């Protein structure tokens, strides 16, 4: 089996958690390479539901080692709580979870800055998850952030360093946002306590991944968010602050390109977006509401209602191309079960002009109207299907069209939320 990268093909929330869980059974490592606790990966196992924000979904398989890569921003308070939650459910974490020394520490002042900035932006706000992601990556880029490796410093040094950082964040909070300061001493003392329990997880990722470079250990890269939320290639400024596209897998892990293996994009059978920003195929009104209810489209991290719309091939082709996807997995096909018509955007119309190439600037998207092709629905449940031939003909036609237009094989189709509700199609869906 090859190594594999799992990347969100749309605006996040494509159901990556379930796919990573299914594919991590046979790997040695599962690595998260970007983002932080803004992610919410939900996995249903029997009647248990696991929502993971920082810990890779691979943790649910005994024997799999998980690494939070150097490209991540890690809130140690959130990490502690997530680990306790898993341990309470009887899942062993400590001996299998590792954190790169170079990952940034996401501190309480990052969250307060995130909230304060969003509040100040008012109508122009990004609609962030409020988890402090942007301010933490800002500290990284301006070379002022604390890192996981700092957790290994002597307690008094860590405390002093933390107090300095909190005080300088407090200046920004009061001068730019008139926001309340963070209690420096309290935060520093808490961090010192956290360092005692999280310090032992800190590793030199270069050393830990020696076997992966040597080809003796297999790895699955777990992407968070989605292609359209990428800081460089998404709908800027309505994006997250990391590279959720393929480049992030390299910079966020420190592994060379030859270790990437298969690159699988995860796409919902329709589309959703949470937060603000352009979304050409968005369905406003009852159609969108019905899709939201059928798909349970409420954020795993914030509980926010997700905006819902049709599959967008202009966006999808862009995503396949810039990530070099070698295969695509379509999720939540069952959510479309009840519909009599399913629409897919094949192009955008801008006045008289027809656009099939995704625009470079997100600002150009609001004036684009989707050009739709309609497909008849299958109007029966697909959750019990386990082979391609079990699917209704209308569902297969829809998938075949997506495969042809995306220009890469659909290698799997998820037909329900449980682990086994999956059809694997390694040779594609077009017969
Ligand atoms: P941030 O990552 O919290 O700064 O949020 C920036 C944008 O990315 C907002 O539109 C968020 O709603 C969106 N976002 C961040 N993480 C996720 C995710 O895991 N799924 C879907 N959207 C996300």
Overview of the molecule:
The chain is α/β, with parallel strands linked by helices and 431 residues long. Among the domains are: 98 residues, Adenylosuccinate Synthetase, subunit A, domain 2, CATH 1.10.300.10; 165 residues, Adenylosuccinate Synthetase, subunit A, domain 3 (Adenylosuccinate Synthetase, Chain A, domain 3, Alpha-Beta Complex). It contains 12 helices and 20 strands. Strands 9-7-5-2-10-1-11-15-19-20 form a 10-stranded mixed sheet, with helices on both faces. Helix 3 packs across helix 4. The model has no long low-confidence stretch (mean pLDDT 95). Bound molecules: inosinic acid. The site of inosinic acid has 20 residues, from helix 4.
């Amino acid at each position: 089996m090859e190594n594999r990268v799992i990347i969100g093909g749309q605006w996040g929330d494509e159901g990556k958690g379930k796919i990573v869980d299914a594919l991590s059974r046979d790997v040695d490592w599962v690595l998260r390479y970007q983002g932080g606790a803004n992610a919410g990966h939900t996995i249903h196992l029997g009647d248990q539901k696991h929502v993971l924000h920082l810990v890779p979904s691979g943790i649910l398989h005994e024997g799999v080692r998980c690494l939070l890569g150097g490209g991540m921003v890690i809130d140690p308070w959130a990490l502690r709580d997530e680990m306790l939650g898993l341990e309470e459910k009887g899942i062993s974490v400590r001996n299998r979870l590792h954190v790169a020394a170079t990952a940034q520490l996401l501190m309480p002042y990052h969250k307060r800055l995130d909230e304060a900035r969003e509040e100040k932006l008012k109508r122009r706000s990004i609609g962030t998850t409020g988890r402090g992601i942007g301010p933490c990556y800002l500290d990284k880029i301006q070379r002022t952030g604390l890192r996981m490796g700092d957790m290994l410093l002597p307690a008094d040094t860590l405390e002093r360093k933390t107090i300095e950082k909190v005080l300088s964040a407090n200046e920004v909070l009061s001068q730019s946002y008139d926001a309340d300061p963070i209690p420096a001493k309290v935060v520093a003392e808490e961090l010192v306590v956290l360092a005692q329990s999280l310090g032992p997880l800190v590793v030199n990722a270069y050393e830990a991944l020696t076997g992966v470079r040597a080809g003796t250990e297999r790895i699955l890269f777990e992407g968070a968010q989605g292609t359209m939320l990428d800081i460089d290639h998404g709908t800027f400024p309505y994006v997250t602050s990391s590279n959720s596209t393929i480049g992030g897998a390299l910079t966020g892990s420190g592994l060379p390109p030859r270790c990437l293996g298969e690159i699988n994009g995860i796409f919902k059978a329709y589309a959703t977006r949470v937060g603000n920003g352009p979304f050409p195929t968005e369905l406003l009104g009852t159609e969108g509401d019905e899709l939201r209810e059928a798909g349970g489209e409420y954020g795993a991290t914030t509980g926010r209602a997700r905006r819902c719309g049709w599959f967008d091939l202009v966006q999808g082709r862009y995503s396949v191309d810039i990530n070099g996807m070698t295969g695509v997995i379509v999720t939540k096909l069952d959510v479309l079960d009840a519909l009599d018509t399913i629409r897919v955007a094949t192009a955008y119309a801008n006045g008289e002009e027809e656009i099939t190439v995704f625009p470079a600037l997100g600002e150009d998207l609001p004036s684009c109207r989707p050009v739709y092709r309609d497909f008849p629905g299958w109007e029966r449940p697909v959750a019990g299907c386990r082979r391609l031939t079990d699917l209704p003909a209308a569902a297969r036609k829809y998938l075949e069209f997506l495969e042809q237009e995306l220009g890469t094989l659909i290698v799997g189709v998820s037909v329900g939320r449980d682990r086994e509700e999956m059809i694997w199609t390694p040779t594609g869906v077009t017969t």
